[in-house]
Specification:
Layout: H1 20-23, H2 30-40, H3 88-91, H4 94-105, H5 110-116, H6 123-134, H7 140-152, H8 158-177, H9 182-194, H10 201-213, H11 217-229, H12 246-256, H13 260-272, H14 279-308, H15 317-344, H16 350-364, H17 367-379, H18 386-398, H19 402-413, H20 417-433, H21 437-449, H22 456-468, H23 475-488, E1 497-502, E2 505-511
Antiparallel strand pairs: 1-2
Helix pairs in contact: 6-7, 6-8, 8-9, 8-10, 9-11, 10-11, 10-12, 12-13, 12-14, 13-14, 13-15, 14-15, 14-16, 15-16, 16-17, 17-18, 18-19, 18-20, 20-21, 20-22, 21-22, 21-23
Organism: Trema orientale
InterPro entries: PPR_rpt (IPR002885), TPR-like_helical_dom_sf (IPR011990)
Protein name: Pentatricopeptide repeat
Length: 512
C-alpha cells in the first residue's frame, strides 16, 4: 500500500524507524525509501521554512531563478527572515544551482558532491542548500547530510548552527501538531545526534511544552520515557551542571498546574521502572512533595476548624488512620527521592536535599525528624535560617519532645536578646498548641526572669489554659506562681482568689 507521498512505507519493507540513520548511509536503497520515511515524519514538518517565495508578495525574501529548476513550488511559510534576506539572491552563483541539481539527482553521496564543489560555494550558499532541502516535499535527509559534512569540514559557525536548530524545531513542531507517533519525534532527535547536532535542553522543553499546551499530557510522559529509555543526551544551554532535563521539566510543568502528586509519582515511577531521570528531577519532585504536604496540612487545619465549630463531624478513627497513611506514604516517597539524589548527585546537592527534607517534615509536623535535618544541614555546611529553627522548636514543644527541645535551646542561650525572645515565644506557642500549659507557664516565667516580656496574647492564652485545668494536681500552684511573676513585672493587677472546700478538695470559684 502506498503512503501519502506515493512511496512504499518503511514498515512494509521490513525496516524500522530506528534503522533510518543507516539507510541514508546506504544509497543503494534509493531515493524512494529515504523519501518515504521523511514523508511520514519530517516532510510533514511545522510551517517548514522556505527560501522560495514570491518576491512581489514579499520583497524581503529570495526569488530563485525559475530557469534553474523545474516545477518549483511556492511555499507560504517563511520563518527564516532572520537568516535569509533578498541580498542573498545576488550571492547565489552558478555553483549553488549546480550543487542543488547534483544533490537532487541522488547519484552520488552528498559529501562527494560538496567536496568537489567546496571552493565554489560560499558560507551563505551552503546555508541556502540546508534551507532548500528542509522544505516540505524535498529530501530532508539531504539537509542532515549537508549539515554533517559542514560540521566535519569545520564550516559550522554560530549562524549556521542557529539556522539548523530552527529547521529541526520546525520539523519537530510539525510532527507533534500532525499527531505523529511520539517515537517519530524521538527518532528525529536521535538523527540529530547522529550528525553532530546534539539536541539542546531548550529543544526538550519545546517538545514537552507543545504536547502539554495541546492537552496531550500522556504523550508528554511517553516522550520523556522514550528519551530516557533510548539514552538521548542533550546539551546544557547555560552550562549549569544542575540544569534540569526532560523529566524535571515535565515534573515542573505538573507542579505549576498544582498537580503536585503527579509530579512526585512521575519521577518515582520512572526511577523504579529502571529508567534514570536526571538528578535535578529528584529535587523538583521533592519540592512538589513539600507543596503537597503543605496544602494537605492547610486542608486538615480547615477541617478541624469546621469540626470545632460543629460545622462537620469529628474525624473518626478510620479517617485519622487514612490521613496518617497518606502523609507517611508521601514522606516515604520524599525520603526515596532524597536517597537517589544523594547517591547519584554531587556533594554540592547534599545541603539542598536536607533542606527539602526539613521542609517536608515541618509541613507534616514531624518534630524529631525535622530537628535531625537541621543537624544534617549543619554537618554538610548549610546552616538553616533561625526562623526554621524556631518553627522546629515549636513543633517539638507541641509534641513535648524534651530531649530535642533541650538540644535546640543550647543555640538560643548564646543568641541576642531579640533573637532569644523570638525563639522562646515560638517555644511558648508550641507548648500552648500542644496543650502543655504547665511547660508554657515555665517558659513565661523564664522569659520574665531574663527580662523578656512575652506578648499579651501569649500570656493570656497560658492563663486561660491553666484556668481550665485548675482542678488538676499542681495546677493551682502553677497558676498562682505565674500570676505572682506577672504581678511583680506589672503585667497584671493583684489577684484576689476565693476558695471553698468540698470533700477535701480545693476549688477556685473566682479569680479577679
Amino acid at each position: 500500500m502506498a503512503s501519502a507521498q506515493g512511496f512504499t512505507p518503511l514498515t512494509e519493507l521490513g525496516i524500522s524507524s530506528s534503522s533510518c540513520i543507516s539507510l541514508r548511509r546506504n544509497r543503494s536503497f534509493g531515493y524512494q525509501v529515504r523519501k518515504s520515511f521523511w514523508g511520514r515524519t519530517c516532510c510533514a514538518s511545522s510551517r517548514v521554512c522556505s527560501i522560495i517565495c514570491c518576491k512581489q508578495q514579499n520583497p524581503g525574501f529570495i526569488v530563485v531563478k525559475p530557469s534553474k529548476f523545474r516545477e518549483f513550488r511556492l511555499f507560504k511559510s517563511v520563518e527564516l527572515d532572520q537568516f535569509l534576506t533578498s541580498d542573498d539572491e545576488e550571492e547565489m552563483g552558478e555553483g549553488f544551482f549546480e550543487a542543488i541539481e547534483e544533490l537532487e539527482r541522488m547519484t552520488r553521496e552528498p559529501s562527494d558532491v560538496l567536496e568537489e564543489m567546496n571552493d565554489r560555494l560560499s558560507a551563505r550558499e551552503l546555508q541556502l542548500v540546508l534551507v532548500y532541502f528542509s522544505q516540505e516535499g524535498r529530501d530532508s535527509w539531504c539537509a542532515l547530510e549537508v549539515f554533517e559534512w559542514l560540521r566535519k569540514e569545520n564550516r559550522v559557525d554560530k549562524e549556521t548552527m542557529e539556522l539548523m536548530v530552527t529547521l529541526m524545531c520546525s520539523w519537530i513542531k510539525k510532527l507533534i501538531e500532525g499527531e505523529h507517533d511520539v517515537g517519530d519525534v524521538v527518532d528525529l532527535l536521535v538523527d540529530m545526534d547522529c550528525v553532530g547536532l546534539k539536541p539542546s535542553f531548550s529543544m526538550m522543553e519545546k517538545v514537552i511544552s507543545l504536547y502539554w499546551d495541546m492537552g496531550e499530557k500522556e504523550r508528554a510522559v511517553l516522550f520523556v520515557k522514550d528519551v530516557l529509555r533510548r539514552g538521548i543526551t542533550y546539551s546544557d544551554d547555560d552550562g549549569d551542571g544542575n540544569k534540569g532535563g526532560p523529566t524535571g521539566y515535565l515534573a515542573w510543568k505538573m507542579m505549576v498546574e498544582g498537580k503536585y502528586m503527579d509530579a512526585v509519582k512521575l519521577v518515582v515511577d520512572l526511577r523504579e521502572s529502571g529508567l534514570k531521570p536526571e538528578v535535578y528531577s529528584y529535587l523538583i519532585a521533592m519540592t512538589a512533595a513539600v507543596k503537597e504536604l503543605n496544602e494537605f496540612a492547610k486542608a486538615l487545619r480547615k477541617l478541624k476548624g469546621f469540626a470545632r465549630g460543629r460545622l462537620t463531624a469529628e474525624l473518626d478513627e478510620e479517617s485519622t488512620e487514612l490521613i496518617e497513611k497518606y502523609q507517611s506514604d508521601l514522606l516515604a516517597d520524599g525520603v526515596r527521592l532524597s536517597n537517589w539524589a544523594t547517591e547519584e548527585g554531587s556533594s554540592s546537592l547534599y545541603g539542598v536535599v536536607h533542606e527539602r527534607l526539613l521542609a517536608m517534615y515541618i509541613c507534616a509536623g514531624r518534630g524529631l525528624e525535622a530537628e535531625r535535618q537541621l543537624w544534617e544541614m549543619k554537618l554538610v555546611g548549610k546552616e538553616a535560617d533561625a526562623d526554621l529553627h524556631d518553627i522546629v522548636l515549636a513543633i517539638c514543644a507541641s509534641q513535648k519532645e524534651a530531649s530535642a527541645i533541650a538540644r535546640m535551646l543550647t543555640r538560643v542561650e548564646i543568641s541576642s536578646s531579640l533573637r532569644k525572645k523570638k525563639s522562646l515565644s515560638w517555644l511558648l506557642r508550641g507548648y500552648v498548641k500542644g496543650g502543655h500549659f504547665d511547660k508554657a507557664a515555665e517558659t513565661v516565667v523564664k522569659m520574665l526572669d531574663l527580662g523578656l516580656c512575652p506578648e499579651y496574647l501569649d500570656r493570656a492564652a497560658v492563663l486561660q489554659g491553666l484556668r481550665k485545668r485548675i482542678q488538676g494536681p499542681g495546677s493551682v500552684e502553677t497558676y498562682l506562681k505565674l500570676c505572682k511573676h506577672l504581678s511583680d513585672n506589672n503585667l497584671v493587677g493583684p489577684c484576689l482568689v476565693y476558695l471553698y472546700i468540698k470533700k477535701y478538695k480545693l476549688w477556685i470559684i473566682k479569680m479577679v
